[in-house]
Every structure is written in structure tokens, then in C-alpha cells.
Known about the structure:
It contains 15 helices and 23 strands. With 471 residues, the protein is α/β, with parallel strands linked by helices. Strand 18 (368-369) and strand 19 form a beta hairpin. Helix 1 packs parallel to helix 15, helix 4 (82-92) crosses helix 5 and helix 5 (99-120) crosses helix 15. The chain is elongated, with a radius of gyration of 23 Å.
Amino acid sequence: MTTPLPQVRPAHEMQADDHTPVVIVGAGACGLTAALALHRLGVECVVLERDAFPAGSTALSSGFIPAPLTRAQAAQGIHDSVDLFASDIQSKAHGDAASHLVQAYASQIGPALDALEAHHGVPWQVLDNFLYPGHSAHRMHAVPEKTGAGLMSRLQAAADAAGVMLLTQAQVTELWADEKQRVHGVGFVRPGGVVERLRCDVVLLACNGFGGAPAMVKNLLPEMAEATYAGHAGNDGSALHWGEQLGARSADLGAYQGHGSWAMPQGALISWALMMEGGVQINARGQRFHDETQGYSEAAVHVLAQPGGVAWNVFDDTLLAFAQGFPDFVAAQGAGAVQHAADTAALARIIGCPVDALQATLDAVQPGSEPLTGRTFKRALQAPFHAVKVTGALFHTQGGLDVDAQTRVLLQDGTPLPNLLAAGGAARGVSGGAVWGYLSGNGLLSAIAGGHIAAHTAAHCVQTLRPRAAP
Length: 471
């Protein structure tokens, strides 16, 4: 059965008896963070998830979340600040990121993570053995599993323990709104094609971007039209479709998170920490072609521009041991992604490149700054070598519905819709308007900080709608 296109229908035609104060569309990190915050605020909600179990883009990610001033940072003696984090975000985006969201997310992500730990038992550790590109402090937080799937598992367990009402296999296809753009309820498709409807006071779109909508990608991100899509199928652009019908504006639609290290043919993410610690990317000519420390998002474009749209991640025994501290890498290695070469000649045979060209490339990897890309190396690579064949991939989009600092969706004139909120992939992020603006972790930053903020906005909206008790 074909799922109906996302539609906005006239509220006066809606027939439904069931009501909940808040409906959250999507049960990824954003939706579950919002639901848990609403639970703490004493506001009932229903989370509607299209899939059989919560996963979304979060489960496909590394699960690393940047945040300053957390209990975990303090416990590990790490010095950081909101201003420094905000500055790093803007620096990566060349000053093009939405300043109101940068400040809101940078200031609220710490409290959001601390609340998940203190009230819901989600344990955080700060990865302090390397710095992701663009970050001035160790602030990447992870659950013990160090995977996005592990993060989702813990958030779902927390939601279950809190008694959050979560309906899976419930794909929202309808918003019901009046002539003033106030949303009165939603309609969602259940197994067997049954459509159910639910009235509510507030809707939070925590659902998706548009990376899984090929026509939208071709139109808005033409450089990634033929790239591998490594994101979630649920990123079908529904939020943008609903917003357009309601007269909402969008922003930063040219921004996205790419990744220049998607293993082929295994279809697995290879941690960019390898590049940050001294690994290099080499093309079919045996040459490096960019400064790998500038960021894994824009690296997708650089890799796709190489012959065949592929490159090889090359590293040595020291870096192999380092990478094996990441469960995702271990899984990829188990799937056969890592090939081994005793010397340069053997590595050239794996890559299919001239030995002389490859030797010249490796010889240039020496302590100090090299002239080709300006990258600074700490040490040379030593044989034996290891290599992973990779391509550039599209992970998720960073543009979406325009929102204010309270995550309220904005109309074309900049005024907020009465009761429609958006966060995570449904809303614009803090990466500016292009691929190079993506700072490592911006996706989960927007999801978790946005969900945390949206819950407080929704709670305030619900409180204002409740009739005051008689004196």
C-alpha cells in the first residue's frame, strides 16, 4: 500500500474523540528527549513513530554529542564554556549559522544531557583521546556503547521506564489546521492501512529532513544527487511539505552532513578519528587530494570528485589499534572492510595505483606542515599499512523549517505559528547554508538540545491553554 502524501487538512472537518496535550512526530533522539523532558514537566504526550521500533538517523550515527559544562566534563577535569562552543560552531560555518539557534543550542545541550543522566540514568562519558575537527575542547559525549544504536537503546529504555506513550508503526500523514494555522490534531497510518486521528494542543515535528527524497536532493543538493544515501528512509521531507502548506518558511536548505568515509561495499561508517590522528585519504592515482582534518562532511564532496568517486583510507598499526577502540570500526573490520599491505608495493596493488606516485605521497607524510594541502602531521606512517575503500555519502540534511530560539515554526513574515514546533532534522540546523559548515556532532546537538527546548515551549503552550481554576 502506498502511504498518502503529507497533507494539511481543514480542522473543522476532523473527526476524532481522543485527545492528548502534545503530539511528537518521530521517536529519534529529538522526539524521545522531548518526551522525557515533558514527563519531568508533568505534561502528557504521545510519540508517533513510523517504524516498528525507534531508530531514525540517530541509530545510524556514531552517537557522539558535543556539549559544554556537563557533569561528565567536570568529572574528567575538562575546561569548556558555552561561548567557546558557540564560537566553534560559527567558525566552522564561517559565521553563517543562525545565531539565535547557535546560542540556544550551545547553552541548553549541557542541561539536556545532565537531565537525561540525573533523571533517566543515561550515562555519559567524554571522548578525551582525540579532538574532532573544529572543536577547541574535548566535549564529545557518548554512552558506554559508543554507537548511535546504543544511544537509541538507552533513550528508549528511559522512555519505557518513564511510561512515555509511544506508538510505533504509526506514520503521520495529516496535520489538521484552522484558517489561523493552529494545528488541532494529526492523522496517522497504522498497520493494514488503517488511519487514526488524534486531537492535541501542540505538535512537535521531530521527524525528518529530506535526504531520503531523491527529487528534493536533486533539486536542493545537486552535488549529492548521485551520492550514496546512508541515512534513514524516513527522511522523506514531510516536515517541509507540511510547512509549505501552512505558509511556513524554510532556511539553510543547501546544508547537509555528508561523510567522506563510507566503506565499500560493506556500507559502514569508518570513524573520522582515524584521519584526525594521522590517517590519509588516497585516490586511484596514488595521491592525497585534500586536508583530511578540515571535516568529514565536506570530505564527501572531495571524495566524490576523485576517479570513480572513491578513495582509500590509509593508516598503520598504531592507528589500527586506536580505531579498534570504536565498536563501529570493529564491526566494519569484521565485515572485511580493512585490507592489509606489508609494504608500499602491496598497498599500491590494493589501491590499483602507480607505486612511484604512492611512495611520493607517503614520503610527504612527515612531522610538520606539508605544502600540498597545508595539513600538519605529527608523525610519518610506518609499514605495514592498512586500507579501507570508501566513497562519499549523504547522511542527513541540515536545512529545514525556520524556527525561533524556542523552536516555534515561523511564517514567511517571521511570526511564529500558534502551536507548531520543529526540532532535529525537521528544522534548520546550525551549519549555515552549505556542506562545509557542518561541525562534528551538529546533527545530534540540534536533535537533543532542540528536543529539550521544544518540550519546555510545548509545556508553556499547554499551560496557557488550560482553563484557570475558579477562585
